[in-house]
Amino acid sequence: MELRGTLRDFSLEAILGLIRNGHKTGTLRLAVTTPVAMLRRVDLSFLGGEIASVQCGSLRGLDALREAAICVEGSFEFSVDSALSPQDETVPVAMEVALATIDGARNAMKSLGATLPAAGVAFSHAVPADDTIHISVEEFRLLAITRDGMTLNDLIATNTAPTVDSMRIAQQLMERGPLVAGPAVPTVDQ
User: Fold this and answer.
1) Exposure string (b/e) for 4-26, b if CB count within 10 Å is 16 or more?
2) How does 96-106 read in b/e, with b if 16+ C-beta sit within 10 Å?
3) Which residues contact 29 (CB under 8 A, 6 or more apart)?
4) Do residues 101 and 69 lie in contact, with contact meaning Cβ atoms separated by under 8 Å?
């Protein structure tokens, strides 16, 4: 069974269901675009219809699946293999967990998309009104890579976390004060 199409024609859940119900072993390759217009390639390996591994760039497992879940534009191709190749790093994901992860990522994306500023807005560091602010490790990581004038897309592209997590962290930092959004300043070539 070879399967090809677009995510406009088949949802990710429908594709996973077809592979699972057919007890197929092979690779599902997604070439997709996130809601903030970032291109992603996601590879899912299957063994007997169950997810054996998921990879999206440096993301693996549920993080990679969350990246795939938020994409509604793109194409997919499933090719049948008789067995996974020995170099495949298997990190099995139960189908029920996969479906819950997809649902959670989509819900988070809807919520974040409604509260974050538009893509053309630039971020900058700010000193919070409080004398002391406690930040998490993930917040620190995002602040450490943030340069004044970066857009949301820049932050997402630079951060190693999945898109949804990067957006959530940016929102948290904006709410707490160390990150502010303002009008983008056009760059001038010299």
Assistant:
1) eeebeebebeebbebbbebebbb
2) eebbebbeebb
3) 41, 42, 43, 76, 77, 78, 79
4) yes
Q: Which residues contact 190 (CB under 8 A, 6 or more apart)?
A: none
SS3 62: helix
The pTM of the full predicted model, rounded to 2 decimals, is: 0.79
Q: What's the number of CA atoms in the CB half-sphere (13 Å) around residue 110?
A: 6
pLDDT of 118 strictly over 80: no
Residue 40, token pair as written in the block: 């992603």
**Contact predicate 46/53, CB 8 Å:** no
Instruction: Assign 33 to helix, strand or coil.
Output: strand
Token reading at 161: 């976390």
